Amino acid sequence: MFNSELEIQENLNKLTKTNKDILRDNLEVIISKLPLSLSSLIENGFKYKRIPKEYLLSSVLFAFSAATGRTFYIDTLGYKNYANLYFVIIGSRGDVKSEAIKTATAPIKKTDDKDYESYLYENKDLGKEDKVIKRRQTLIQNATIEAAQKIHFENPNSIGLCLDEIYGLVQKMANSNSRDGVEWRNFFLEGYTNDYIDVSRKTTVSFRIPESYPTLIGGLQYQFVKELFANGNLESGFIDRLLFTTKLTENKKLRKEGIPYDCIERYSQSIKNLLDYKKQSENPEELRKQFKISFTKEAELRLFNYVQKLIEDKDVAKPMIKEYLSKMQISIHKFCLLSFMVLNASDSTFNSELTVESVELAIALNDFYFLNFQVIIEDAIKVEQKKISIDDVVAMGKKNGASQKAVTEVTGVHKSTISRRWEDV
Q1: What is the phi/psi pair of residue 208, to 5°?
Q2: Are 249 and 27 within 8 A, CB to CB?
Q3: Could you tell me which residues come within 8 angstroms of residue 170 by beta carbon, excluding any fewer than 6 positions away?
C-alpha cells in the first residue's frame, strides 16, 4: 500500500530505471537543494573544467567537513556528533578525480599556505632552548601515521587527509604485516565516532587527543576497489564508514574558459567563514570553544522517523548491506550538521536552529551514498561471476579438442600447471 503519488513514482522508477539512472536523478535533486554558492561551483566545474558533478559534490562536502571541525556539534536523540566524514571517489584514469578535490579544497589550501609562511617566520630566529611555535594546518597530503597523529594533536579541531590516490593507504591497511596500515585503520575507526586518541612513545613526546576529528578524501581506480574489501578492512567496519562516489556524469565538450571568478569567490567565502570561526575558537583567550546547533522539534522528529526506518530496514537486509545500514544511523547525524553548515555558511548564520530543510538534505545525501555503495557491491559481484577457473578452461578445452599448448597460450598459465590439471579434470 502506497501513501502518496511520490511513493508510487519512486517504486515505478525502481522497476524501470537502473541504479545509476536513479543516482543521476538523485544527484540533480541534491544539487538543487544546495545554496547558489555551491550549486553554481558544481555546475560551472562540470561545464568549464569537465569535472563530474558527483566528484565535485563529494569534494565540496569534504572541504566543508574539514573546515567545520569540532567548533560546531549537535546533541540529539541521545548522541553528540560532529561533521567529519570519509569520502572515496571511484573512477578510471583521466576521470578528473584530482581536479575535483583540488578545486573544492583550494580555499583551505590558501589558508594553510598563509599559516605555513607565518610558522616559518615566527620560528626563524629561535634558539636551541626556545620553544617552537606550533604550525597551524588543516589539510594533510603526505604523512606517516605518527606524523598525522602529531599534526592532529597540534590542530585538535580537525585534520583532513587529502589524497589524489587512496590506493597506497588501502594497500597498507589490507596488509596484516604492516604496522602502519593497522594503525591508520584504527585511527579512522576511532576518529569516525570522535573517540580519544592516546599516543605513548618511549623515544618521543606522548600526547592525548580527547576528541578526535579526522576527515578523509581520496581517489581510487575501479580495478583497485576489491582491495578495499581485503584483509580486515571489511570485517573491521572500515568499509562501512566510507562514502563512495561512482562515475555518473560526463562532459566531452572542451572549453577555453575556466570557472568564472565570482563563482569561485562566492564558494571560497563560505569556506573562509567556517575557517574564521574555527580559528577564533582555537584562540587561547577565547572562552567559548564550541557551539551547539539545536534542532527544531519538526527537524528532530523527521530525523527520529528516518533513523527508525533505518533500524527496521537493517533487520531484513542482506549481509554487507546490513552493516552499512548500521553506520548510516551515525552518518545521518553527521550529515545533518554538515548540511546545516552548507546551508548557512555563506551568510554565517550559525546562531540559528537546524530545521527540516537541513534534515531533508542530509537524508538525500545519506541515501545517495548508500545507493552508490550498492552499485559498488553489484559491480564487484559481476566481476566475480565473470571469473572462470583454470579447471573450467581446461575442461572446456578438452571437450572441444584443444591441445594443452593451445590452452597454455590462451590462459597464460605455465604449461606444467595445465598438464597437471589436464589429468585431473
Answers
A1: -140, 135
A2: yes
A3: 220, 224, 227, 228, 233
User: Dihedral (C-alpha) 346, 351, 353, 359: value to the nearest 10 degrees?
Assistant: 30
Residue 203 has pLDDT above 70, yes or no: no
DSSP string, 315-358: HHPPTTHHHHHHHHHHHHHHHHHHHHHHHHTTTT-TTS-B-HHH
Q: Which residue has the cell 551547539?
A: 292
For 56-149, strand residue ranges (E) read: 72-76, 79-81, 86-91, 139-140
Q: Pinpoint the alpha helices (H) of 34-52.
A: 36-49
Q: How many helices (H) and strands (E) does the chain have?
A: 16, 10
CA angle 339, 342, 347 (to 5 degrees): 135
In the predicted model, is pLDDT for residue 241 greater than 60?
Answer: yes
Residue 417: Cβ within 10 Å count: 13
CA distance 264 to 107: 9
Cα 234 from Cα 225, distance rounded (Å): 12
Strand 207-209 vs strand 197-199: parallel, antiparallel, or unpaired?
A: antiparallel
Is the pLDDT at 242 greater than 50, yes or no?
yes
Average pLDDT (35-50) is 97
Residue among 83, 160, 86 nearest 333 (CA): 83
pLDDT of residue 247: 95
Closest CA to 61 of 338, 337, 373, 345: 338
Strand partners, 372: none
DSSP assignment of 223-281: GGHHHHTSTTTTTTTTGGGEEEE----------S--S-HHHHHHHHHHHHHHHHHHHHH
Tens-digit pLDDT profile for residues 279-295: 988 888 888 889 999 99
Q: Does position 167 have pLDDT exceeding 80, yes or no?
A: yes
* Torsion angle of the four alpha carbons 43, 49, 54, 56, in this order, in degrees rounded to the nearest 10: -90
On the question of pLDDT at 385 being above 50, the answer is no
* pLDDT for the residue 404: 74
Give 91's strand partners.
221
49 CB-side CA count, 13 A: 23
Amino acid type, 101: I
Residue pLDDT, tens place only, 85-127: 999 999 988 889 999 999 999 999 999 999 999 999 888 877 7
What average pLDDT does the segment 222-231 reach? 79
Distance between CA 180 and CA 39 in Å, rounded? Answer: 38
